[in-house]
Design brief:
Elements lengths: L2 H17 L14 H11 L11 H12 L1 H10 L3 H4 L1 H7 L11 H12 L7 E4 L4 E2 L3 E8 L4 E7 L3 H22 L8 H15 L2 H18 L16 E5 L4 E2 L13 H19 L1 E3 L7 E4 L3 E4 L5 E3 L2 H15 L3 H10 L9 H12 L12 H14 L9 H17 L5 H16 L2 H24 L13 H27 L2
Helix pairs in contact: 1-8, 3-4, 3-6, 8-9, 10-11, 11-16, 11-17, 12-13, 12-17, 13-14, 14-15, 18-19
Length: 504
């Protein structure tokens, strides 16, 4: 899509928001300074009939639905933050999760046949009407030939082209922000958009989602905090995904939290611990844990679906995350600050002590407090001030992690309004710290480093000479003696280092 067409779609998106009175809604007029109030009233002159129907959240939800899947994804995240935007606003946006208009079942059947390249009757004994329709795909109940009940996810027709157009508009918006809003450059908007584009690209191939669902199902079975339905591989194609039927009731159903014997606190704890154990212990996590993707059953059974977005963390990022969480849990703000400096979150010319002091100002009023006593809006405001003051730059590889943490906390608070995120996190984080940062773990790390060094030396010894000169090799016995001595010396260094660790 050309820049001119992208600009046209960008302007069109703004027009949709203006017509719905969702850009600067009239309900916040009393909060605006005079200059902004004048702008808002001017824009409102162009509003349409839909601007007079419903609350701000309802109007924004309708506008997001018209704007397409990327905007709907944004609405899904906003809908989890009732603590910031208010319960009515969040509930209005929550309709975006699985209550969009479905496309015809006959079209879905044709998509299944084309994607699997086989007749529908060769796999399914029955194929029902859609039970949920979201921004990218919709789900149908079906029955396999062996009688098993399954859910079949089918991509919306033409969704690839629509997402591509939306991404081009996002790229244009990011470029404009980068060029004209200097304070936002440290957030690296262009890189963020490219990261989001890659995520959407993977989400539009359901074979990748099937692989992610299978991987996370194994991880969840090991941890026990959450479940995932098994993949039915014979029903998997690029535009089709088939899973066993999810247990429990959808969390979007108002009756789901009124089930007899339901432990709402246990559910909230399991949600937080499932996410953290996936991220910390395994380095792979479900990165779209909103209510529309969760089913609940008594006493505290959580089942996740929709594995289109999966996050991954390398060992360094996992260690950094654990250090930060543990530091806040222990109120060790210097440790948190040091962790930020070690991985380059904060430039080295700043003071670790000053940054630790700033973190204390954020952490002390919030850590360990009941959720109802914490102002998340105030916390986010303080964090923004700190990131500006210390030149912190957004780490693109942690974007999904940060987004998922926000979503998980919002859902946990809906499950249990008095939920304490830090208390729920403590067992998982402390277990990781005890396992990965203990003296034994550090000895193991040193031994691994020594083994890698020996392999590298061995490869160097076996490499051909860099010049074409014939050299008689030393006797085999001398080669063996040399390698033995070198290995012994390296092992001795590793043992000495390990003893130093143990005696610290």
């Amino acid at each position: 899509m050309s820049d001119a067409r992208a600009l046209g779609r960008f302007i069109a998106a703004g027009w949709v928001l203006v017509r719905a009175d969702a850009l600067i809604p009239r309900e916040i007029d009393h909060l605006l300074p005079p200059s902004s109030l004048t702008l808002a009233r001017t824009l409102r002159l162009f509003s349409g009939p839909e601007a007079r129907r419903g609350r701000p959240g309802e109007r924004l939800a309708r506008a997001f639905e018209r704007l397409g899947p990327v905007s709907i994804k944004l609405g899904q995240v906003l809908s989890t933050r009732a603590d910031i935007f208010g319960r009515a606003f969040a509930e209005d946006l929550s309709k975006l999760k699985d209550q969009l208009p479905p496309f015809p079942t006959e079209v879905a059947k044709a998509e299944v046949v084309a994607s699997l390249d086989r007749p529908l009757a060769s796999i399914f004994a029955s194929f029902g009407e859609p039970i949920a329709a979201a921004s990218i795909a919709q789900a149908h109940p079906a029955t396999l030939l062996d009688g098993r009940r399954v859910a079949v996810k089918v991509l919306r027709p033409g969704i690839e082209a629509r997402v591509g157009r939306d991404v081009e508009v996002l790229r244009l918006a990011a470029t404009m922000v980068e060029r004209h809003v200097p304070p936002a450059r440290r957030l690296e908007p262009i890189l963020l958009v490219e990261t989001a584009a890659r995520v959407l690209e993977l989400e539009l191939d359901l074979r990748f989602e099937a692989a992610g669902a299978s991987e996370l199902a194994e991880i969840m079975a090991e941890d026990g905090f959450m479940r995932a339905p098994p993949v039915v591989w014979q029903g998997v194609g690029k535009r089709v995904l088939t899973l066993d039927w999810a247990e429990g009731m959808a969390l979007t159903d108002p009756a789901s939290l009124d089930q007899p014997g339901l432990d709402r606190k246990g559910l909230a704890d399991n949600l937080v611990r499932a996410f953290l154990s996936q991220a910390l212990d395994h380095g792979v996590f479900h990165a779209d844990l909103h209510e529309g993707n969760l089913f609940v059953g008594p006493p505290a059974v959580l089942t996740a679906v929709d594995f289109g977005i999966i996050g991954r963390l390398d060992a360094s990022a996992r260690k950094h995350l654990a250090e930060i969480l543990w530091g806040f849990l222990q109120r060790d703000y210097r440790r948190v600050a040091r962790a930020h400096f070690d991985v380059g979150y904060v430039p080295a010319h700043h003071s670790v002590e000053a940054f630790a002091q700033a973190l204390r100002a954020v952490g002390e009023p919030n850590v360990g407090q009941p959720a109802g006593a914490v102002s998340m809006g105030r916390l986010l405001g303080l964090l923004f001030e700190i990131t500006a003051l210390f030149d912190m730059r957004l780490r693109p590889e942690l974007v999904l992690l940060q987004k998922t943490m926000v979503t998980v906390e919002g859902v946990a608070r809906r499950l249990d309004p008095s939920h304490n995120l830090w208390a729920a996190a403590e067992p998982v984080v402390s277990r990781w710290i005890a396992r990965e940062l203990s003296p034994v773990a550090r000895i193991r790390e040193l031994a691994d480093d020594a083994a890698k060094a020996l392999k590298a030396i061995a490869r160097m010894a076996e490499a051909p000479a860099p010049v074409a000169v014939v050299v008689e090799p030393p006797p085999r016995s001398l080669n063996g003696l040399w390698m033995f001595a070198l290995g012994a010396a390296t092992s001795a260094l590793a043992i000495a280092a390990a003893m130093w660790v143990l005696n610290r």
